[in-house]
Amino acid sequence: MSRARRLAAAVLALLAAAPAPAAALVAELSQREIAVTTGFTGAELLVFGAKETAPADLIVVVRGPALPFVVRQKTRIAGIWVNGASEIFNTAPTFYAVASTRPLAEILPESERERLRLGLDALPLRPEGPRDEPAFRDALIALKTEAGLYRQDDDGVTLVGERLFHARIFLPPTVIPGPYRVDVLAVQDQRIVAARDIALVVRRVGTSAEIWRFAHEQPWLYGFGAVLVAALAGWTGSVLFRRG
Amino acid sequence: MQVYLPLAEMSVDALLVVGIGLAVGLLSGLFGVGGGFLMTPLLIFIGIPSAVAVATSANQTMGASISGLIAHWRRGNVDAKMGAVLTLAGLAGSAVGVRLFALFRSLGQLDLVVALFYVVVLGIVGSLMAAESVRALLRRRRQVRRRLHEHFWMHGLPLKMRFRQSRLYISVIPPVMIGFGIGLLSAIMGVGGGFILVPAMIYLLGMPTAVVIGTSLFQVVFVTAAVTVMQSVSTQSVDVILALMLMAGAVAGAQFGAAMGSRLRGEETRGLLGLLVLAVALELGVALFRRPEAMYVVEPLL
Protein backbone atom coordinates (compact mmCIF):
# COMPACT_ATOMS: atom_id res chain seq x y z
CA MET A 1 0.00 0.00 0.00
CA SER A 2 1.39 3.40 -0.90
CA ARG A 3 2.07 5.96 1.78
CA ALA A 4 -0.69 8.28 0.56
CA ARG A 5 -3.25 5.52 0.53
CA ARG A 6 -2.24 4.37 3.99
CA LEU A 7 -2.59 7.93 5.20
CA ALA A 8 -6.04 8.28 3.65
CA ALA A 9 -7.16 4.99 5.19
CA ALA A 10 -5.90 6.05 8.60
CA VAL A 11 -7.67 9.39 8.38
CA LEU A 12 -10.91 7.71 7.38
CA ALA A 13 -10.58 5.28 10.28
CA LEU A 14 -10.05 8.20 12.64
CA LEU A 15 -13.03 10.06 11.28
CA ALA A 16 -15.21 6.99 11.64
CA ALA A 17 -14.05 6.28 15.18
CA ALA A 18 -14.31 9.80 16.57
CA PRO A 19 -17.66 10.70 18.16
CA ALA A 20 -19.39 13.59 16.41
CA PRO A 21 -19.17 16.51 18.93
CA ALA A 22 -15.53 15.99 19.86
CA ALA A 23 -14.49 15.68 16.26
CA ALA A 24 -13.43 19.31 16.02
CA LEU A 25 -9.87 18.13 15.55
CA VAL A 26 -8.35 14.70 15.07
CA ALA A 27 -4.67 14.03 14.62
CA GLU A 28 -2.34 11.08 14.40
CA LEU A 29 1.37 10.38 13.79
CA SER A 30 2.90 8.15 11.16
CA GLN A 31 4.65 6.42 14.06
CA ARG A 32 4.37 6.69 17.83
CA GLU A 33 7.87 5.42 18.36
CA ILE A 34 11.11 6.30 16.59
CA ALA A 35 13.78 3.65 16.85
CA VAL A 36 17.41 4.75 17.00
CA THR A 37 19.24 1.77 15.54
CA THR A 38 22.83 1.27 14.43
CA GLY A 39 21.81 2.45 10.95
CA PHE A 40 19.83 5.50 12.19
CA THR A 41 20.13 8.47 9.84
CA GLY A 42 17.24 10.53 11.17
CA ALA A 43 13.51 10.03 10.77
CA GLU A 44 10.68 11.85 9.06
CA LEU A 45 7.61 12.14 11.22
CA LEU A 46 4.30 12.66 9.47
CA VAL A 47 1.65 14.44 11.54
CA PHE A 48 -1.78 14.23 9.91
CA GLY A 49 -5.44 14.58 10.74
CA ALA A 50 -8.67 16.39 10.04
CA LYS A 51 -10.38 19.51 11.36
CA GLU A 52 -13.85 21.02 11.05
CA THR A 53 -14.87 22.45 7.71
CA ALA A 54 -14.87 26.03 9.01
CA PRO A 55 -11.70 27.89 7.93
CA ALA A 56 -9.00 27.61 10.57
CA ASP A 57 -5.24 27.70 10.81
CA LEU A 58 -3.22 24.79 12.17
CA ILE A 59 -0.07 24.67 14.27
CA VAL A 60 1.97 21.51 14.85
CA VAL A 61 4.63 21.52 17.58
CA VAL A 62 7.09 18.73 18.35
CA ARG A 63 9.07 19.06 21.59
CA GLY A 64 11.89 16.84 22.79
CA PRO A 65 13.13 16.31 26.34
CA ALA A 66 14.80 19.33 27.97
CA LEU A 67 18.42 19.24 29.12
CA PRO A 68 20.90 21.72 30.58
CA PHE A 69 23.22 23.27 28.00
CA VAL A 70 26.15 25.61 28.22
CA VAL A 71 26.84 28.23 25.55
CA ARG A 72 30.41 29.46 25.32
CA GLN A 73 31.61 32.53 23.52
CA LYS A 74 34.89 32.41 21.60
CA THR A 75 37.33 35.09 22.64
CA ARG A 76 40.83 35.89 21.55
CA ILE A 77 43.67 35.56 24.04
CA ALA A 78 47.16 36.30 22.74
CA GLY A 79 45.96 35.68 19.20
CA ILE A 80 44.51 32.26 19.99
CA TRP A 81 40.77 31.67 19.89
CA VAL A 82 39.58 30.09 23.14
CA ASN A 83 36.28 29.49 24.89
CA GLY A 84 35.62 32.54 27.04
CA ALA A 85 32.46 33.73 28.78
CA SER A 86 29.70 31.17 29.10
CA GLU A 87 26.02 31.01 30.04
CA ILE A 88 24.19 27.99 31.40
CA PHE A 89 20.67 27.26 30.20
CA ASN A 90 19.22 24.79 32.66
CA THR A 91 16.24 23.62 30.65
CA ALA A 92 16.53 23.93 26.92
CA PRO A 93 14.54 21.56 24.71
CA THR A 94 16.86 19.18 22.89
CA PHE A 95 14.43 19.27 19.96
CA TYR A 96 11.81 21.84 19.01
CA ALA A 97 9.98 22.09 15.71
CA VAL A 98 6.93 24.22 15.02
CA ALA A 99 5.06 24.17 11.71
CA SER A 100 1.98 26.16 10.77
CA THR A 101 -0.25 26.97 7.83
CA ARG A 102 0.68 30.68 7.97
CA PRO A 103 3.34 32.69 9.86
CA LEU A 104 2.66 32.36 13.60
CA ALA A 105 2.60 36.14 14.11
CA GLU A 106 -0.38 36.39 11.74
CA ILE A 107 -2.28 33.57 13.43
CA LEU A 108 -1.92 34.31 17.16
CA PRO A 109 -1.30 37.42 19.30
CA GLU A 110 2.07 37.69 20.99
CA SER A 111 0.75 37.08 24.53
CA GLU A 112 -0.80 33.81 23.44
CA ARG A 113 2.37 32.73 21.64
CA GLU A 114 4.42 33.51 24.75
CA ARG A 115 2.01 31.62 27.00
CA LEU A 116 2.00 28.51 24.81
CA ARG A 117 5.70 28.87 23.93
CA LEU A 118 5.04 28.82 20.22
CA GLY A 119 7.83 29.89 17.93
CA LEU A 120 11.59 30.09 18.37
CA ASP A 121 11.41 33.63 19.83
CA ALA A 122 8.95 32.42 22.49
CA LEU A 123 11.09 29.53 23.72
CA PRO A 124 11.53 29.73 27.50
CA LEU A 125 15.33 29.95 27.43
CA ARG A 126 16.53 31.79 30.49
CA PRO A 127 20.20 31.67 31.40
CA GLU A 128 21.33 30.93 34.93
CA GLY A 129 23.03 33.79 36.71
CA PRO A 130 22.65 37.56 36.82
CA ARG A 131 23.77 38.40 33.29
CA ASP A 132 21.13 38.15 30.62
CA GLU A 133 22.74 38.88 27.31
CA PRO A 134 20.42 38.01 24.45
CA ALA A 135 23.49 37.13 22.35
CA PHE A 136 23.91 33.79 24.15
CA ARG A 137 20.24 32.92 23.76
CA ASP A 138 20.34 33.84 20.08
CA ALA A 139 23.51 31.79 19.62
CA LEU A 140 21.88 28.76 21.25
CA ILE A 141 18.88 29.02 18.91
CA ALA A 142 21.05 29.65 15.86
CA LEU A 143 23.38 26.70 16.53
CA LYS A 144 20.49 24.33 17.28
CA THR A 145 18.71 25.51 14.16
CA GLU A 146 21.83 24.91 12.12
CA ALA A 147 22.02 21.38 13.53
CA GLY A 148 18.40 20.77 12.45
CA LEU A 149 17.29 20.44 16.07
CA TYR A 150 15.23 23.67 16.18
CA ARG A 151 12.95 24.69 13.36
CA GLN A 152 10.16 27.08 12.64
CA ASP A 153 8.39 26.44 9.38
CA ASP A 154 5.78 29.06 8.51
CA ASP A 155 4.13 26.99 5.82
CA GLY A 156 4.98 23.53 7.12
CA VAL A 157 1.36 22.46 7.55
CA THR A 158 -0.39 21.66 4.29
CA LEU A 159 -4.18 21.69 3.99
CA VAL A 160 -5.76 19.21 1.63
CA GLY A 161 -9.25 20.38 0.78
CA GLU A 162 -11.25 21.83 3.65
CA ARG A 163 -10.64 19.24 6.33
CA LEU A 164 -7.47 17.21 5.89
CA PHE A 165 -4.02 18.44 6.88
CA HIS A 166 -0.53 17.06 7.22
CA ALA A 167 2.94 18.21 8.26
CA ARG A 168 6.31 16.56 7.85
CA ILE A 169 8.83 17.02 10.64
CA PHE A 170 12.38 15.74 10.21
CA LEU A 171 14.22 14.47 13.27
CA PRO A 172 18.00 14.51 12.53
CA PRO A 173 20.31 11.64 13.60
CA THR A 174 21.49 13.68 16.59
CA VAL A 175 18.07 13.67 18.34
CA ILE A 176 18.26 12.75 22.00
CA PRO A 177 16.25 9.66 22.94
CA GLY A 178 13.43 10.22 25.44
CA PRO A 179 9.78 11.24 25.67
CA TYR A 180 8.61 13.68 22.99
CA ARG A 181 5.29 15.49 22.73
CA VAL A 182 3.41 16.51 19.62
CA ASP A 183 0.77 19.25 19.95
CA VAL A 184 -1.71 20.06 17.21
CA LEU A 185 -3.65 23.32 17.58
CA ALA A 186 -6.49 24.69 15.49
CA VAL A 187 -6.76 28.50 15.51
CA GLN A 188 -9.68 30.63 14.45
CA ASP A 189 -9.80 34.45 14.76
CA GLN A 190 -6.63 34.62 16.93
CA ARG A 191 -8.10 32.05 19.33
CA ILE A 192 -7.30 28.38 19.86
CA VAL A 193 -10.48 26.45 19.19
CA ALA A 194 -9.23 22.88 19.44
CA ALA A 195 -6.08 21.10 20.59
CA ARG A 196 -4.75 17.58 20.58
CA ASP A 197 -1.55 16.23 22.09
CA ILE A 198 0.09 12.95 21.21
CA ALA A 199 3.05 11.29 22.95
CA LEU A 200 6.00 10.23 20.85
CA VAL A 201 8.95 8.19 22.08
CA VAL A 202 12.44 8.22 20.62
CA ARG A 203 14.09 5.05 21.80
CA ARG A 204 17.48 3.45 21.30
CA VAL A 205 16.92 -0.10 20.10
CA GLY A 206 19.08 -3.01 19.05
CA THR A 207 22.83 -3.11 19.32
CA SER A 208 23.40 0.62 19.70
CA ALA A 209 20.97 0.77 22.65
CA GLU A 210 22.65 -2.13 24.37
CA ILE A 211 26.11 -0.66 23.86
CA TRP A 212 25.01 2.72 25.23
CA ARG A 213 23.29 1.18 28.25
CA PHE A 214 26.24 -1.10 28.95
CA ALA A 215 28.71 1.79 28.75
CA HIS A 216 26.70 3.90 31.18
CA GLU A 217 25.54 1.24 33.62
CA GLN A 218 28.64 -0.95 33.79
CA PRO A 219 31.51 1.38 32.84
CA TRP A 220 34.24 -0.84 34.33
CA LEU A 221 33.04 -3.94 32.51
CA TYR A 222 32.56 -1.90 29.34
CA GLY A 223 36.15 -0.63 29.57
CA PHE A 224 37.56 -4.12 30.01
CA GLY A 225 35.28 -5.33 27.21
CA ALA A 226 36.59 -2.60 24.88
CA VAL A 227 40.17 -3.67 25.69
CA LEU A 228 39.32 -7.31 25.01
CA VAL A 229 37.57 -6.50 21.74
CA ALA A 230 40.53 -4.40 20.56
CA ALA A 231 43.00 -7.12 21.54
CA LEU A 232 40.99 -9.79 19.72
CA ALA A 233 40.63 -7.61 16.63
CA GLY A 234 44.36 -6.85 16.55
CA TRP A 235 45.29 -10.48 17.07
CA THR A 236 42.80 -11.73 14.45
CA GLY A 237 44.18 -9.20 12.00
CA SER A 238 47.75 -10.36 12.49
CA VAL A 239 46.75 -14.03 12.09
CA LEU A 240 44.68 -13.32 8.97
CA PHE A 241 47.46 -11.44 7.24
CA ARG A 242 50.22 -13.86 8.19
CA ARG A 243 48.38 -16.73 6.49
CA GLY A 244 47.32 -14.69 3.48
CA MET B 1 26.92 3.72 4.26
CA GLN B 2 25.97 5.58 7.42
CA VAL B 3 26.61 3.94 10.78
CA TYR B 4 25.27 5.29 14.08
CA LEU B 5 27.93 5.58 16.79
CA PRO B 6 26.21 4.74 20.09
CA LEU B 7 28.47 6.77 22.39
CA ALA B 8 29.28 9.66 20.08
CA GLU B 9 25.46 9.77 19.48
CA MET B 10 25.86 10.64 15.82
CA SER B 11 26.14 8.82 12.52
CA VAL B 12 29.21 8.73 10.34
CA ASP B 13 30.04 7.39 6.91
CA ALA B 14 31.47 3.91 7.54
CA LEU B 15 33.62 4.08 4.38
CA LEU B 16 35.17 7.37 5.48
CA VAL B 17 36.04 5.97 8.92
CA VAL B 18 37.47 2.72 7.54
CA GLY B 19 39.39 4.87 5.03
CA ILE B 20 40.91 6.93 7.86
CA GLY B 21 41.85 3.68 9.59
CA LEU B 22 43.45 2.42 6.38
CA ALA B 23 45.43 5.62 5.79
CA VAL B 24 46.67 5.81 9.37
CA GLY B 25 47.43 2.06 9.35
CA LEU B 26 49.44 2.50 6.15
CA LEU B 27 51.55 5.23 7.70
CA SER B 28 51.95 3.34 10.95
CA GLY B 29 53.13 0.24 9.10
CA LEU B 30 55.49 2.38 7.05
CA PHE B 31 57.02 4.19 10.00
CA GLY B 32 56.57 1.63 12.76
CA VAL B 33 54.52 3.90 15.02
CA GLY B 34 50.95 3.54 16.29
CA GLY B 35 49.65 6.52 14.36
CA GLY B 36 47.42 7.80 17.16
CA PHE B 37 48.81 11.30 16.63
CA LEU B 38 47.22 11.33 13.17
CA MET B 39 44.07 9.42 14.13
CA THR B 40 42.81 11.82 16.81
CA PRO B 41 43.08 15.02 14.70
CA LEU B 42 41.46 13.29 11.71
CA LEU B 43 38.53 12.10 13.83
CA ILE B 44 38.05 15.58 15.28
CA PHE B 45 38.24 16.97 11.75
CA ILE B 46 35.31 14.80 10.55
CA GLY B 47 33.17 16.03 13.45
CA ILE B 48 33.67 13.43 16.18
CA PRO B 49 33.63 15.17 19.59
CA SER B 50 37.18 15.61 21.01
CA ALA B 51 36.45 13.44 24.03
CA VAL B 52 35.27 10.50 21.92
CA ALA B 53 38.10 10.97 19.41
CA VAL B 54 40.80 10.89 22.09
CA ALA B 55 39.39 7.99 24.12
CA THR B 56 38.52 5.84 21.09
CA SER B 57 41.85 6.53 19.47
CA ALA B 58 43.60 5.14 22.55
CA ASN B 59 41.47 2.00 22.31
CA GLN B 60 42.26 1.63 18.61
CA THR B 61 46.00 2.17 19.18
CA MET B 62 45.92 -0.68 21.69
CA GLY B 63 44.36 -3.05 19.15
CA ALA B 64 46.77 -1.96 16.43
CA SER B 65 49.84 -2.40 18.65
CA ILE B 66 49.03 -5.83 20.06
CA SER B 67 49.91 -7.85 16.96
CA GLY B 68 53.30 -6.13 16.82
CA LEU B 69 53.87 -6.87 20.48
CA ILE B 70 53.11 -10.58 19.95
CA ALA B 71 55.56 -10.75 17.05
CA HIS B 72 58.36 -9.02 19.00
CA TRP B 73 57.68 -11.10 22.12
CA ARG B 74 58.12 -14.32 20.12
CA ARG B 75 61.47 -13.12 18.83
CA GLY B 76 62.56 -12.18 22.35
CA ASN B 77 62.84 -8.48 21.51
CA VAL B 78 61.02 -7.27 24.62
CA ASP B 79 62.85 -6.16 27.75
CA ALA B 80 60.05 -7.15 30.13
CA LYS B 81 61.66 -5.55 33.17
CA MET B 82 62.16 -2.20 31.49
CA GLY B 83 58.66 -2.55 29.99
CA ALA B 84 57.19 -3.16 33.45
CA VAL B 85 58.91 -0.08 34.90
CA LEU B 86 57.74 2.10 31.99
CA THR B 87 54.24 0.64 32.22
CA LEU B 88 53.83 1.17 35.96
CA ALA B 89 54.98 4.78 35.62
CA GLY B 90 52.78 5.11 32.56
CA LEU B 91 49.73 3.94 34.50
CA ALA B 92 50.33 6.62 37.11
CA GLY B 93 50.77 9.23 34.36
CA SER B 94 47.62 8.18 32.54
CA ALA B 95 45.60 8.22 35.78
CA VAL B 96 46.65 11.84 36.26
CA GLY B 97 45.97 12.53 32.57
CA VAL B 98 42.43 11.14 32.69
CA ARG B 99 41.67 13.36 35.72
CA LEU B 100 43.02 16.42 33.88
CA PHE B 101 41.02 15.42 30.80
CA ALA B 102 37.75 15.33 32.79
CA LEU B 103 38.66 18.63 34.49
CA PHE B 104 39.36 20.43 31.20
CA ARG B 105 36.17 19.02 29.73
CA SER B 106 34.07 20.40 32.57
CA LEU B 107 35.79 23.78 32.16
CA GLY B 108 34.96 23.78 28.45
CA GLN B 109 38.63 24.00 27.48
CA LEU B 110 39.19 20.41 26.34
CA ASP B 111 39.42 21.21 22.62
CA LEU B 112 41.95 23.94 23.29
CA VAL B 113 44.08 21.81 25.62
CA VAL B 114 44.10 18.87 23.20
CA ALA B 115 45.10 21.19 20.35
CA LEU B 116 47.84 22.88 22.39
CA PHE B 117 49.30 19.54 23.48
CA TYR B 118 49.34 18.42 19.86
CA VAL B 119 51.03 21.57 18.59
CA VAL B 120 53.71 21.64 21.28
CA VAL B 121 54.50 17.91 21.45
CA LEU B 122 54.33 17.24 17.72
CA GLY B 123 56.25 20.44 16.98
CA ILE B 124 59.14 19.44 19.22
CA VAL B 125 59.20 15.77 18.22
CA GLY B 126 58.84 16.52 14.51
CA SER B 127 61.71 19.03 14.54
CA LEU B 128 63.97 16.65 16.49
CA MET B 129 63.20 13.77 14.11
CA ALA B 130 63.79 15.83 10.99
CA ALA B 131 67.04 17.26 12.39
CA GLU B 132 68.25 13.83 13.48
CA SER B 133 67.62 12.25 10.12
CA VAL B 134 69.48 15.06 8.35
CA ARG B 135 72.39 14.55 10.74
CA ALA B 136 72.29 10.78 10.13
CA LEU B 137 72.32 11.29 6.37
CA LEU B 138 75.41 13.51 6.72
CA ARG B 139 77.08 11.12 9.15
CA ARG B 140 76.70 8.21 6.75
CA ARG B 141 79.41 9.71 4.57
CA ARG B 142 81.80 10.24 7.46
CA GLN B 143 81.48 6.80 9.11
CA VAL B 144 81.91 7.75 12.77
CA ARG B 145 82.13 4.80 15.16
CA ARG B 146 79.74 5.14 18.08
CA ARG B 147 80.02 3.67 21.53
CA LEU B 148 77.50 1.14 22.88
CA HIS B 149 75.64 4.02 24.50
CA GLU B 150 76.45 7.39 25.98
CA HIS B 151 76.31 7.89 29.74
CA PHE B 152 74.35 10.90 30.92
CA TRP B 153 74.29 12.50 34.34
CA MET B 154 70.80 11.11 34.84
CA HIS B 155 71.94 7.52 34.55
CA GLY B 156 73.97 8.04 37.70
CA LEU B 157 71.00 9.05 39.87
CA PRO B 158 70.24 6.80 42.88
CA LEU B 159 68.01 3.66 42.83
CA LYS B 160 70.09 1.81 40.26
CA MET B 161 68.56 -1.21 38.63
CA ARG B 162 69.91 -3.84 36.26
CA PHE B 163 68.09 -4.36 32.95
CA ARG B 164 69.73 -7.50 31.57
CA GLN B 165 68.10 -7.60 28.19
CA SER B 166 68.99 -3.97 27.50
CA ARG B 167 72.50 -4.49 28.94
CA LEU B 168 71.98 -1.46 31.18
CA TYR B 169 72.70 -0.73 34.82
CA ILE B 170 71.10 2.68 35.37
CA SER B 171 69.00 4.64 37.82
CA VAL B 172 65.30 3.80 37.67
CA ILE B 173 64.39 7.51 37.79
CA PRO B 174 64.77 8.37 34.07
CA PRO B 175 62.60 5.46 32.82
CA VAL B 176 59.98 6.26 35.47
CA MET B 177 59.87 9.91 34.38
CA ILE B 178 59.67 8.99 30.71
CA GLY B 179 56.94 6.41 31.37
CA PHE B 180 54.93 8.89 33.43
CA GLY B 181 55.14 11.56 30.73
CA ILE B 182 54.05 9.15 27.99
CA GLY B 183 51.13 7.95 30.12
CA LEU B 184 50.00 11.55 30.61
CA LEU B 185 50.18 12.28 26.86
CA SER B 186 48.40 9.02 26.12
CA ALA B 187 45.38 10.07 28.19
CA ILE B 188 45.20 13.64 26.92
CA MET B 189 46.11 13.11 23.26
CA GLY B 190 44.82 9.58 22.69
CA VAL B 191 48.20 8.51 21.34
CA GLY B 192 50.23 5.45 22.20
CA GLY B 193 53.30 7.63 22.41
CA GLY B 194 55.59 5.31 20.42
CA PHE B 195 56.88 8.22 18.37
CA ILE B 196 58.25 9.83 21.56
CA LEU B 197 59.04 6.66 23.48
CA VAL B 198 61.26 5.12 20.80
CA PRO B 199 63.66 8.08 20.47
CA ALA B 200 63.60 8.60 24.26
CA MET B 201 64.66 4.97 24.82
CA ILE B 202 67.45 5.20 22.28
CA TYR B 203 68.86 8.61 23.11
CA LEU B 204 67.96 9.14 26.76
CA LEU B 205 68.14 5.60 28.17
CA GLY B 206 70.70 4.25 25.73
CA MET B 207 68.82 1.03 25.06
CA PRO B 208 69.94 -1.20 22.16
CA THR B 209 67.80 -0.61 19.06
CA ALA B 210 66.85 -4.31 18.80
CA VAL B 211 64.71 -4.28 21.94
CA VAL B 212 63.40 -0.70 21.65
CA ILE B 213 60.41 -1.31 19.38
CA GLY B 214 59.22 -4.42 21.22
CA THR B 215 59.59 -2.79 24.63
CA SER B 216 57.84 0.39 23.53
CA LEU B 217 54.95 -1.70 22.16
CA PHE B 218 54.79 -3.46 25.53
CA GLN B 219 54.34 -0.12 27.29
CA VAL B 220 51.96 1.24 24.65
CA VAL B 221 49.65 -1.79 24.81
CA PHE B 222 49.32 -1.75 28.59
CA VAL B 223 49.01 2.01 28.97
CA THR B 224 46.43 2.43 26.17
CA ALA B 225 44.49 -0.51 27.68
CA ALA B 226 44.47 1.30 31.02
CA VAL B 227 43.47 4.58 29.34
CA THR B 228 40.60 2.78 27.60
CA VAL B 229 39.27 1.46 30.92
CA MET B 230 39.76 4.76 32.76
CA GLN B 231 38.14 6.85 30.01
CA SER B 232 35.22 4.39 29.90
CA VAL B 233 34.69 4.88 33.62
CA SER B 234 35.27 8.62 33.90
CA THR B 235 33.83 10.02 30.64
CA GLN B 236 31.99 7.14 28.85
CA SER B 237 33.59 8.24 25.63
CA VAL B 238 35.16 5.04 24.26
CA ASP B 239 33.03 4.14 21.24
CA VAL B 240 33.64 0.48 20.41
CA ILE B 241 31.80 0.66 17.08
CA LEU B 242 34.08 3.51 15.96
CA ALA B 243 37.15 1.67 17.29
CA LEU B 244 36.24 -1.52 15.41
CA MET B 245 35.76 0.31 12.12
CA LEU B 246 39.10 2.11 12.56
CA MET B 247 40.86 -1.15 13.42
CA ALA B 248 39.42 -2.94 10.39
CA GLY B 249 41.06 -0.31 8.19
CA ALA B 250 44.23 0.03 10.22
CA VAL B 251 45.08 -3.68 10.36
CA ALA B 252 44.89 -3.97 6.59
CA GLY B 253 46.72 -0.66 6.03
CA ALA B 254 49.57 -1.61 8.36
CA GLN B 255 50.39 -4.67 6.22
CA PHE B 256 50.74 -2.61 3.04
CA GLY B 257 52.67 0.05 4.94
CA ALA B 258 55.14 -2.49 6.32
CA ALA B 259 55.73 -3.86 2.83
CA MET B 260 56.40 -0.35 1.50
CA GLY B 261 58.59 0.51 4.48
CA SER B 262 61.02 -2.31 3.85
CA ARG B 263 62.08 -0.56 0.63
CA LEU B 264 63.01 2.69 2.37
CA ARG B 265 66.17 3.41 4.38
CA GLY B 266 65.86 4.02 8.13
CA GLU B 267 67.06 7.63 8.01
CA GLU B 268 64.78 8.43 5.10
CA THR B 269 61.70 7.01 6.83
CA ARG B 270 62.52 8.90 9.99
CA GLY B 271 62.98 12.11 8.02
CA LEU B 272 59.65 11.63 6.27
CA LEU B 273 57.92 10.83 9.55
CA GLY B 274 59.43 13.97 11.06
CA LEU B 275 58.06 16.07 8.20
CA LEU B 276 54.62 14.46 8.55
CA VAL B 277 54.55 15.12 12.28
CA LEU B 278 55.62 18.72 11.68
CA ALA B 279 52.91 19.21 9.06
CA VAL B 280 50.20 18.01 11.49
CA ALA B 281 51.56 20.31 14.20
CA LEU B 282 51.65 23.26 11.80
CA GLU B 283 48.08 22.68 10.57
CA LEU B 284 46.73 22.42 14.13
CA GLY B 285 48.79 25.42 15.21
CA VAL B 286 47.53 27.65 12.42
CA ALA B 287 43.94 26.56 13.19
CA LEU B 288 44.28 27.97 16.71
CA PHE B 289 44.82 31.45 15.27
CA ARG B 290 42.21 31.18 12.52
CA ARG B 291 38.97 33.02 13.20
CA PRO B 292 36.37 30.35 14.08
CA GLU B 293 33.35 29.98 11.78
CA ALA B 294 30.94 30.21 14.71
CA MET B 295 31.65 32.63 17.54
CA TYR B 296 29.67 30.51 20.01
CA VAL B 297 29.57 26.82 20.85
CA VAL B 298 26.81 24.84 22.54
CA GLU B 299 27.63 21.82 24.67
CA PRO B 300 25.52 19.67 26.95
CA LEU B 301 26.23 20.62 30.56
CA LEU B 302 28.12 17.81 32.29
Q: What would the keywords be for this entry?
A:
heterodimer, A: 244 residues, alpha+beta, Immunoglobulin-like, 2 domains, six-stranded mixed sheet, four-stranded antiparallel sheet, 31% helix, B: 302 residues, mainly alpha, two-stranded antiparallel sheet, globular
Tell me what the structure shows:
The complex is a heterodimer of chains A (244) and B (302). Chain A is of the alpha+beta class. Chain A contains six helices and twelve strands. Chain A has two domains: 201 residues, Immunoglobulin-like; 40 residues, no CATH class. In chain A, helix 5 crosses helix 6. Chain B is mostly helical and 302 residues long. Chain B is 71% helix and 7% strand. Chain B is globular. In chain B, a hairpin with a 4-residue loop joins strand 1 and strand 2. Chain B has ten helices and five strands. In chain B, the strands form two sheets. Chain B has a two-stranded antiparallel ribbon. In chain B, strands 3-4 form a two-stranded antiparallel sheet. Chain B has one domain. Classes of the chains: A alpha+beta (244), B mainly alpha (302). At the A-B interface, strand 5, strand 6, helix 4, helix 5 and helix 6 of A face strand 1, helix 3, helix 8, helix 9 and strand 5 of B. Strand 5 of chain A pairs antiparallel with strand 5 of chain B.
Total strands of chain A: the figure is 12
Task: Give a count of the beta strands of chain B, DSSP E runs of length 2 or more.
Answer: 5
Enumerate the strands of the largest sheet of chain A in spatial order, edge to edge or round the barrel.
Answer: 2-12-11-4-7-8
**Helix-strand sequence of chain A:** HEEEEEEEHHHEEEEEHH
Roughly how much helix do the residues of chain A carry, as a percent range? Answer: 25-40%
Mean pLDDT rating of chain B: 83
In CATH terms, the superfamily of the largest domain in chain A is Macroglobulin (MG2) domain
Low-confidence stretches of chain A: 18-22
CATH topology of the largest domain in chain A: Immunoglobulin-like
- Main interface pair? A-B, 58 and 53 residues
- Helix/strand-derived category of chain A reads alpha+beta
The helix-and-strand class of chain B reads mainly alpha
Number of helices of chain B: 10
How many distinct folded domains of chain A? 2
Reading off the top of the CATH hierarchy, the class of the largest domain in chain A is best stated as Mainly Beta
Name the poorly predicted regions of chain B: none
Helices and strands of chain B, in N-to-C order? Answer: EEHHHHHEEHHHHHE
